[in-house]
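Hey,

Quick one before I head out. I ran the complex with NAP overnight. Inputs first:
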Amino acid sequence: MRLANRVALVTGGGSGIGQAISLLFAQEGAKVVAVDRYLDRAEATAAQIRAAGGEALALKADVASQAEVNAAAEQALATYGKVDILVNNAGISLGSDILTIDEETWDLNIAVVLKGVYLCSKAILPNMLANRRGAIINISSVNGLTGIGEEAYSAAKAAVINLTQNLAVRYGPYQVRANVICPGTIETPIWGERVAKDPQVFAKLAKWYPLRRVGQPEDVARAALFLASDDASWITGATLNVDGGLMAGTGNFADDLSAE
Ligand code: NAP
């Protein structure tokens, strides 16, 4: 068990990647606090963990609300006494380019994707610093690394990478590590609208990936487990792409370059 005696708080723990992380961490011995903006979603994850013999707490919080985040952090700490692992995973992606996105939608992307990481880290860090132990794992995106659209979301995800680096530098001396994962396309409910419009979307995207498939939530969960565990005890400030090779290069460009 790689996370025995650890307490992990996972935001967006009621769906997709956050749910897969919660289930895997519990399987590895962690007590899991699944936080989501709808309690029934967090409860569903906690129920699966308990059914498998694990320990879990479900909490409702909007990560963009300081009051709700602080209340959830207090409840997690009152229940388990500590939080060793924080996974800032909750996210939304709304709107497209800056000429069409309205101000309110822009602000909402930034509030959930970027401010949420700030608020949750701020709420949990004092406990980690006091314990001289912590692992923060932020879920960014390949959208934070290069220009592939969804501008507000992508800009916020890029900022999360820098925030992670600053967390790593500032709190490393207290044995708090912070790392960031950049997933490529992962088949989760966040894609619901696009799948409804085009049921073949994942098959179409697969060809862009050197490994010729899109990812599954478990692909990200296994990377998060590594970063949360003592196997990564000398890794902090790292950006780990979990993207089937998407960011490794541009296949079509390379094909044209080498064409006779
Ligand atoms: P998902 O299945 O939609 O799960 C995200 C969860 O977070 C949902 O339960 C969602 O609730 C919740 N959430 C949204 N806003 C919240 C808020 N303000 N406070 C608390 N919870 C909130 O999506 P996912 O694909 O697993 O995404 C997880 C993370 O991975 C996100 O940060 C996403 O940007 C990132 N990511 C995903 C992909 C991908 O292709 N799937 C790729 C790169 C990065 P609602 O359903 O009600 O919104």
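The chain is about 45% helix and 15% strand.

Talk tomorrow,
K.
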